[in-house]
Specification:
This protein folds into 2 domains: 107 residues, no CATH class; 33 residues, no CATH class. 15% of the residues are buried. The chain contains 2 helices and 14 strands; from the N terminus they run H-E-E-E-E-E-E-E-E-E-E-E-E-E-E-H. The strands form 2 sheets. Strands 1, 3, 4, 6, 8, 10, 12 and 14 form an 8-stranded parallel beta sheet that branches. It has a 6-stranded parallel beta sheet with strand order 2-5-7-9-11-13, with no helix packed on it. It is 21% helix and 33% strand. It is α/β, with parallel strands linked by helices.
């Protein structure tokens, strides 16, 4: 009654084979799309930009830029160093560039040194600085700087019975002020009898 005929067993084998092939093809080509970010024409950013994937800059950036692929559009400005696997410039850049592949479009204006493996400069592009070819300008895994170490916990005796040593990175007067602050807070948090 619950047994399978030979025809059904053959169908089940084909189904499991095709399911196995689907799993194998999904593993062979991961479907994770590359992240893409953009800074629009009306936006101005001051600070360090770090990320993986593609970054399109159409506005103004003042600070360092680190990404896998950076595209600086016509009319965009970057004042700061750029580190990328691939960099295409159509706007203005003032700073040092470290990228494996660099392309200066005809509208590009670059002031600064370019360290590259491959450099292409279109007619009418402006470049003032030094160009230095290197076999390995950047390592792709190290594009994003390593995470900073987490803050270290410190131990302070709220009863004032400490050993007199300041926590790492603090001078004794800072530690004393912090200790007083905590003692006052601990006293105010205590229930009234």
């Amino acid at each position: 009654m619950f047994g399978k005929s030979k025809d059904n067993a053959a169908d089940d084998n084909r189904d499991s084979l095709s399911a196995h092939e689907v799993k194998r093809s999904a593993v062979a080509s991961p479907a994770t799309p590359e992240a893409s970010s953009s800074i629009s024409a009306g936006l101005s950013i001051v600070g360090k930009i770090v990320g993986q994937g593609k970054l399109s800059i159409l506005g103004h950036v003042e600070g360092e830029v680190h990404a896998s692929t950076v595209q600086i559009g016509d009319g965009a400005q970057v004042e700061g160093n750029i580190v990328a696997e691939e960099l295409t410039i159509g706007g203005r850049v003032k700073g040092t560039i470290h990228a494996n592949r660099v392309k200066l479009n005809s509208t590009a204006v670059v002031e600064g040194d370019i360290y590259h493996r491959s450099l292409a400069i279109e007619e009418n592009a402006q470049f003032e600085g030094m160009s230095r070819r290197q076999d390995s300008v950047i390592d792709t895994p190290s594009l994003v700087p390593p995470r900073r170490s987490q803050a270290q916990p410190i131990s302070i005796d709220v009863n004032g019975q400490g050993n007199g040593a300041a926590p790492e990175g603090m001078n004794p007067s800072q530690a004393t002020a912090m200790d007083r602050n905590r003692r006052g807070k601990a006293a105010s948090d205590a229930p009234n009898p």
